[in-house]
Amino acid sequence: MTLTTPARRSAPESFATTALPSTMTAPFTAAVTAPSRRRVWLGGLAALGLVGAIGAVALGSGATPVAPLPAARDSLVGADPSTSRCADDAQTVTSRVVTTQRGRLEVPIGMLEVRASGACGTAWARYTLDASAPVAEVAIEGGTRQELPVVASGRVVHGVTSMIMADGPVHAVVVPVDGAVLPSRSTAGGTP
């Protein structure tokens, strides 16, 4: 089958375009009125009422109140600082990088800190160690001594010892495993 008539091509001149009329004659501007003082005051009052209602629901719903600190400070000796709320106001009194001897090099293996709470009058040791560190336990010493065995799990070991009374100079100590050498194993004595 052959085509007898050549295909028609459209010429670009044959296309007619029409401009759409513009509906916007000027840029959009609107005056925004400032809220009246009365409206702002009523909004604030409504927000206060909402906060009060939420507080009343929380108190009436049997929410557990925050336990106060124990009255007898001696009862905090041997307690965990994070569960007794003594960690709430704690500050680092002194700290030290713990090192070990590997060959002829002294290599850092972690950080040891003495933390103290002014509200509780207690101190404890906080540590972060490499799991391969030759450390058997971490202790806090002052008038008494609290120690915690180091149990490796994962790549980094961290924790806190139990608390002692901070009524004098205290320091934290890492105790090496048998045969290991820890040149910087103790923090300087700090007074909380």
Summarize the model shown:
The chain is an alpha+beta fold. Helices cover 12% and strands 31% of the residues.
Q: What can you tell me about this protein's structure?
A:
The chain has 192 residues and is α+β, with helices and mostly antiparallel strands. Among the domains are: 38-67; 73-176, no CATH class. The protein has 1 helix and 8 strands, in the order αββββββββ.
Search tags:
192 residues; alpha+beta; five-stranded antiparallel sheet; three-stranded antiparallel sheet; 1 helix; 12% helix
The residue-averaged pLDDT reads 75
Report the order of strands and helices: HEEEEEEEE
User: Ranges with pLDDT <50 over ≥5 residues?
Assistant: 24-32
The description of the largest β-sheet is: 5 strands, antiparallel
What fraction, in percent, of the residue positions are helical? Answer: 10-25%
Radius of gyration: 36 Å
Number of E-type strands: 8
Percent of residues in beta strands? 25-35%
Distance between the termini: 105 Å
Give the class from helix and strand content and strand pairing.
Answer: alpha+beta
What global shape is seen? globular
Discrete helix count: 1
Give the helices and strands, then pairings:
Layout: H1 37-60, E1 91-102, E2 105-117, E3 122-130, E4 135-141, E5 145-149, E6 156-160, E7 164-165, E8 171-176
